[in-house]
Design a protein that fits this description.
Number of domains: 1
Shape: globular
Radius of gyration: 15 Å
Order of helices and strands: HHEEEEEEEE
Distance between the termini: 36 Å
Strand content: over 45%
Length: 155
Amino acid sequence: MKTRYMLPLIPFLFTLWSCTSSNPEAKSTLESNLTEDLKNDSIIEYCYRMEQPFENEEGRVDQLEMRLIIKADEVTGHYNWLPVYKDHRQGTIVGTLHDSIILANYYFEQEGIRDTAGMKIVLKKNGIAVSSDRKELGLDATLPLVECKDTEQEK
């Protein structure tokens, strides 16, 4: 049962890991502010996104995205896997920040089933590394830092 869910995720996650941001200017500006922002007590927001276009299907893109809102050491946000041909996995993150490492719980829904997983999110200048002890869920990924944009779905 576990293998059935993991096998389709492996190529997708590997491809996501190997991609880079499509907007280097926005990425550079955000990178320079990361360390300084984490020192302040203000509310800060960071967005991460990975897109994987299909080779022969123009306009079709699998997406993996995370939005983090950090206030002091409290972290909230969302983490969504939005594949074109599969059910989406969408959920929220609640955790605590310690020295650029977020330990969080991920509350998500996929295929009509609600579940929870512990996550470790390592903040880096140019992105994040996400890992979970529940390897069968395929939550592990490396996502580049991108400019946050409001969308109708997030409001």
